[in-house]
Amino acid sequence: MLEPLRQGLPPLDPAAVSGAASCALPSHLEAVREARQFTRKTLVGWDVSERFDDVCLVVSELVTNALRHALPSSSGRTGGEQDAPVRLHLMRWTSRLVCAVRDPSHDGPVAGNSEDFSAESGRGLFLVDSFADSWGWHPLTGALSGKVVWALFRLPSPRTGME
Fold it and tell me: Coil, helix or strand for 102?
């Protein structure tokens, strides 16, 4: 298990966020497609398409990990958004974007150690590390239980004036 890591995570001051969006995800693997669609729609709305491919790949991996490893095996719940076991949060600042996946498990993510590059699983966190500028996780406290796994992406500086 990887130790909790908050280093590199921007402050979560709501006043400093220039955009935020969140969606509840059902506890089945089709939710990965829903997460990508939500991410695409949100990034298009924010006019942040430069890192779309990287962000979508990382969102897919984080959501897949949450669904495969963080839900109890009996989690067939189909409750409303408030009690959804997995949530995707996207937060945008002027020069960075954070995608965070919240799940009910207190166990930290475990990096696969597969040296078989043809294997179909076990490389998700390696991909997250490769495509995000930084990433980490931290346990939740208070009313929410579980953890958040997050990935940060630096965005190109906004263009000012004429070129």
Answer: strand
